[in-house]
Design a protein that fits this description.
Elements lengths: L1 H6 L10 E7 L5 E8 L7 E9 L8 H15 L4 E7 L3 H9 L3 E11 L2 E11 L1
Parallel strand pairs: 3-4
Antiparallel strand pairs: 1-2, 2-3, 4-6, 5-6
Length: 127
C-alpha cells in the first residue's frame, strides 16, 4: 500500500506535484518519510498523503521533528494550509495530528481497502 501511495497522484496532478521528504538519524539511517502533494486540493494548500516512521523509532519524536521541518519548509513555498486524511478508527493517528494543530474539517468515505470499509477524518491546519 505504501509503494502505491508514492506512485499515485490526485486528480489533475502529475509527478511534478509530488514531494517526498525523509528524516535521517544521527547515524544516517532513514527513520521517517513524508509524501505530499502541492496545491491540492486547492492552490496554496498541500496534502499529506503518507507519513511513515520506522517502528524502532516511534515514540521518540521523529514524526514531530519531520512535520515541524516540513511545515517550516512549506511556509517558504508560499503554502498557507495543510490537509490530510486519517482512518476514523486510528485513534492514535488522530491524537498525533490534533497535537500538531490539525482540526477536523469533514468526514469522508467509506473507502474500501481490501475487504474492509473505512471512514476517513479529513483534517486541516493553517500555517
Amino acid at each position: 500500500m505504501a509503494l502505491e501511495e508514492f506512485r499515485s497522484f490526485p486528480p489533475g496532478r502529475t509527478e511534478a506535484d509530488k514531494f517526498v521528504f525523509g528524516l535521517k538519524s544521527a547515524t544516517g539511517e532513514l527513520v521517517g518519510m513524508l509524501a505530499c502533494d502541492r496545491n491540492y486540493p486547492q492552490a496554496r494548500s498541500w496534502w499529506i498523503a503518507l507519513l511513515l516512521i520506522d517502528p524502532a523509532h516511534r515514540g521518540q519524536g521523529v514524526a514531530k521533528t519531520l512535520c515541524a521541518g516540513f511545515f517550516s519548509w512549506l511556509k517558504t513555498q508560499g503554502a498557507d494550509r495543510v490537509e490530510l486524511a486519517v482512518f476514523a478508527e486510528n485513534k492514535a493517528g488522530l491524537r498525533f495530528w490534533e497535537g500538531q494543530g490539525f482540526m477536523l474539517v469533514r468526514t469522508a468515505g467509506p473507502v474500501s481497502i481490501g475487504t474492509k470499509q473505512h471512514s476517513l477524518q479529513v483534517l486541516a491546519r493553517a500555517l
